[in-house]
Design a protein that fits this description.
about 325 residues; alpha/beta; Spore Coat Polysaccharide Biosynthesis Protein SpsA, Chain A; 2 domains; nine-stranded mixed sheet; 12 helices; 9 strands
């Protein structure tokens, strides 16, 4: 029988964490919860369910990557025979049957370092922002370049590349996947239900903060690996700058000389971007309304993303490290 460890990370997840822990606890599973300074009783909740807890040092900036590394370290110290580790965020629950399917895939394909499945939003119709997350999670099946925060990994492959980069506040999984692929490992997404995610995004400012964090992650990814053969997130960051800053700035500069024509052309350009995204999402099987919402926010998101990119470069020049960007509300646990 192959040994599995489960690392759950969280901060003030409340009821979401309780559901996550209960979905992970089962005979044969070694579960560890890594807490990043919660004030909502998360640590006490985990203890009450018999789950091992690692509390991160409050004097060091929190990152999801640092939490995952701490959880893996605990597993290796207490269960050195662990072969596979399932990482899951505390706002998710593991779908029944996923762990067995993931392990079977890793056993069948020794060259695969990471296997992930379908992460779905648990309440996609509670808000348009939750719906956007559900569309975002639906990435293509097969060999992939990257995985998300929920995935099962081969422990030996993780050890060979040194685990996650603990300084990254976003994009830590894609950055890890670059190093895993360079080491000969493959990333595989299978057509199997994996986790249910509870984004709990109900306000525009929450969505803005989350998207700003993504822009920051793109910028940091380029800084770390943009000059490598992978050209990590170079194209994505270039698009962010063009749509989020350069085109609006050029339109503003040319507004008077062109008697407003530059503004008309800018609106037309955004309309073209909207149509391209809408058509792509609609052809993937989304209904028209969902595709329209997703396309609209893919136009708007260039602005918080460019803000995140600017934030990264300012902090880099100042030689300061950013802290995590929190966007979710606190749910009480019962």
């Amino acid at each position: 029988m192959h040994s599995i460890g489960i690392v759950i990370i969280g901060r003030n997840e409340g009821e979401r964490l309780k559901k996550c822990l209960l979905s992970a606890i089962a005979p044969g599973n070694t579960v560890v919860y890594v807490d990043s300074g919660s004030t909502d009783g998360s640590v006490e909740l985990a203890h009450s369910l018999g789950v091992a807890v690692v509390e991160l040092d409050l004097s060091i900036p929190f990152t999801a990557a640092r939490g995952r590394n701490a959880g893996l370290e605990y597993l290796l110290q207490n269960r050195p025979d662990i072969e596979f580790v399932q990482f899951v965020d505390g706002d998710c629950l593991i779908v029944e049957g996923w762990l067995e399917n993931a392990v079977n895939e890793l056993i069948k394909q020794p060259q695969v370092a990471v296997v992930c499945g379908r992460r779905r939003e648990e309440f996609p119709h509670d808000s348009v922002y939750n719906l956007l997350c559900d569309v975002e999670w639906n990435t293509p099946i097969g060999e992939a370049d990257y995985c998300g925060g929920d995935s099962m990994m081969r422990v030996e492959a993780l050890k060979q590349v040194g685990g996650f980069n603990p300084k990254l506040i976003a994009g830590e999984e894609p950055e890890l996947c670059i190093r895993l692929r360079r080491n000969g490992g493959k990333i595989l997404r299978i057509n199997t239900e994996m986790t249910r995610h509870d984004a709990h995004i109900t306000h525009f400012n929450q969505w803005w903060k989350r998207t700003l964090r993504s822009g920051y992650g793109y910028a940091e990814g380029v800084w770390l690996h943009g000059r490598s053969p992978e050209r990590h997130w170079v194209k994505e960051s270039r698009r962010i700058w063009i749509w989020g800053l350069i085109l609006p700035l050029l339109a503003a500069i040319a507004l008077w000389p062109t008697k407003g024509l530059s503004l008309v052309l800018l609106i037309a350009a955004y309309g073209y971007l909207f149509y391209r995204v809408y058509r792509m999402i609609y052809l993937r099987g989304c209904d028209r309304q969902t595709a329209m919402f997703y396309a609209l926010f893919c136009v708007i998101d260039k602005f918080p993303m460019v803000q995140g990119q600017i934030k990264f470069h300012i902090l880099r020049l100042l030689k300061r490290q950013s802290t995590i960007v929190e966007y979710k509300g606190v749910l009480s646990s019962s």
